[in-house]
Write a structure and sequence with these properties.
The chain has about 220 residues and is α/β, with parallel strands linked by helices. The protein contains 7 helices and 10 strands. It is globular, with a radius of gyration of 16 Å. α7 links the parallel β9 and β10. α1 crosses α2.
Length: about 220
């Protein structure tokens, strides 16, 4: 793991967008296609605004979320809506989107069809993750109902997840799939999350799920 500090979040996002573009370009030099996995939430929006304009052969890039809330894609709580509006635009509009949501009452009903689209594109070439103050990443939440399954070495590609305090069910890439990414970037902003990240170093993955994806990762922090 490598820890990178930046003077401010704006500079970090610009640098990280360039780094991810470079990682994708490098992957595409020796593979026909490359898979980029990104989080939702508020943190990565400014990075997406820069990355979407990168001069890449986006038609050879598969973009997917690391996790999704089980809500329609036109909901303001949908991570899919976020990446459609902020990442899959400009030059990156040519990329192929691999969905983590399909219309159904529960994620369990459609997991096989969602996994079938993702499986051929693994491993992830470039992964971007965030981290919550509770040390969760993707939808791997401490105390979630299927966290043990999602952390297992033989975990499936996708795991439905229900967690205390989460309004709706989630679906998340398992720790096995996330940790198997060829390049991993974790972005953290603020003193509270830095303190949580440092505390996570002394906890188990069940207590601090971010621990499950740290090996070989580049961690990027700004105040």
């Amino acid at each position: 793991m490598k820890f990178n500090e930046y003077p401010d979040a704006d500079m970090m996002m610009i640098h990280l967008a360039n780094q991810i573009a470079g990682d994708l370009n490098a992957a595409l030099h020796h593979e026909d296609r490359a898979c980029l996995a990104v989080p939702g939430g508020t943190t990565p929006g400014p990075l997406f605004d820069d990355l979407c304009a990168a001069d890449l052969p986006w038609e050879r890039v598969d973009v997917m979320l690391t996790d999704e809330r089980w809500v329609p894609t036109d909901s303001d709580r949908s991570n899919t809506k976020l990446i459609r509006e902020r990442l899959l635009v400009n030059r990156a509009a040519a990329a192929r989107h691999l969905p983590l949501y399909a219309p159904a009452e529960t994620p369990e009903e459609v997991l096989p069809e969602l996994e079938a689209m993702i499986a051929p594109e693994l491993p992830i070439a470039v992964l971007l993750l965030g981290m919550g103050a509770d040390m969760h990443t993707a939808s791997l939440f401490p105390g979630a109902d299927r966290l043990d399954e999602a952390l297992a070495s033989n975990a499936p590609i996708l795991v439905p997840m229900r967690a205390p305090g989460a309004i709706e069910p989630r679906v998340t890439l398992s720790a096995r799939v996330l940790d198997g990414a060829l390049r991993k970037h974790i972005v953290i902003i603020g003193a509270e999350k830095r303190a949580a990240f440092e505390a996570a170093q002394h906890l188990s993955a069940a207590e601090a799920p971010i621990r499950a994806v740290l090996s070989g990762a580049d961690v990027h922090w700004a105040p």
